[in-house]
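Input set for joint prediction.
Command: fold jointly, output tokens.
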Amino acid sequence: MKKIISTKGAPSPIGPYNQAVLKGNMLYSSGQIAINPETGKLETGNIEHETTLVMESIKAILTEAGMTFENVLKASIFVSDMENFGTINKIYGSYFNEATAPARETVEVANLPKYVNVEISVIASL
Ligand SMILES: C=C(N)C(=O)O
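tokens >
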């Protein structure tokens, strides 16, 4: 049976989805965007801050599921502008041990929900 993961440390969903779903040992997170979970407000405008907010939401989701970033197998990063690749990598990379970092893809897309600049989802396993 699947278990819905829900934490106040990540923003409430803005559509018909959950923050994450756990099935057995596998965790599937929704794409996280720069909404401050405490205020519910979008915090875009600074890509370092946006990326940090996204990664902190993922951290809260992993914690709620009894996991850490070490459990992440795969990440998907969607960006509005590949010019931000280096900055996003710097923040994203600070959450992982490079030797055991997950598989990943980074894709520039035409648009993202709420016109954010970065959205990240992860798949993790216990
Ligand atoms: C923000 C999202 N994860 C969504 O709209 O699907």
